[in-house]
Amino acid sequence: MSSAMDYEKKAICETKAGIKGLVDSGIVEIPKNFIRPPHELAEELNMCKSTLQIPVVDLSGIEVEDRRKKIVDEIRDASEKWGFFQLINHGVPSSVLDGMIHGIRKFHEQDVDVKKEYYSPDPRARQVRYDSNLQLFKTEGRTSYWKDTLYISRLVSGHIEPELIPPVCRKTTLEYINHVMKLGDILLGLLSEALGLKQDYLKAAECANHQSVACHYHPACPQPELTLGTTKHTDPVFLTILLQDMSGGLQVMRDNQWADVTPIEHGLVVNIGDFLQILSNDKFVSAIHRAVAKKVGPRISVAFFFDGSGPTSSKMYGPIKEFISDENPPLYKEFQVSDYVSKFFTKPLDKTVLDLFRL
Ligand SMILES: O=C(O)CCC(=O)C(=O)O
Ligand SMILES: [Fe+2]
Known about the structure:
The chain has helices at 3-15, 18-24, 38-46, 65-81, 94-109, 112-115, 170-194, 201-204, 274-279, 337-344, 353-357, and strands at 56-58, 84-88, 128-131, 148-156, 210-218, 228-233, 239-244, 250-254, 257-260, 268-272, 289-292, 299-307, 316-317, 335-336. It is an alpha+beta fold and 359 residues long.
């Protein structure tokens, strides 16, 4: 590591002002540790961009039987082909969505002296913490991302001690959690039906008992083409509901091309996570996605993750028995959340959850 990089790392960590602090200091070039490796940047230049758009599913009329059937068909198709879709008329009030984005922006833009109280680079240390993935400096050859994130973790059925949430965004965040939990229930029902199972199957299978929320703030970036807001990844959870502002930047991989997930005002993005791909025995896909950095900012996005039972539970997960036959053998071994957690922190960077459990 160069001494210049050491200085930048130290400055970001010590001020606890995040990437936002770096931008506010007036930099015109991004520090080296944010620059993606040359082979990645070269590969990018040769890659075609997809003009396809992820499907949009309208949830209005869901209580009418025929309409629900059509919605289930659309969700099945999107989950099989893309692993991604957008929802409109999903029942979460526009004021709650706007309030969440506004609250998260206020958190990241508040006085650093207040914000830094929440700063912690250790994912296991605190239930609510803010960080800029600077711990990645420590890992040789790993690039840092152009974003700061407020993490709200270890929610149990949507519950968290309200006082743990920063006052500046407490009311709006609690409201948002409350509504997204309800939408999560509706979605689990629709996804169960899309898999040909009873409506309460995925909920009863403990696919969403725990939740966490990652509230991202991507500041304007002076050299966006050299870095990323979030590197390409799949979500190591069952299901994600993502709220994004109108800035754009989220992309999903389809047939080896990046497709933009163009924001829809007051829409929500849904994506299938690794564990749902495993349960469905590869019927549904957990798609690779990323967020590009932008010259203008900030961009706010909020990923609400639905996770399984906690690491102390002995609940086993694996391909759903109903899908397994001599012709369709299981593609993954069974596992407990604790197996996954212990492997996750030591797994090689290029391995996903799917690789860890594939037979
Ligand atoms: O910022 C985004 O739109 C994507 C965030 C994301 O993929 C994640 O938090 O897992
Ligand atoms: Fe993600």
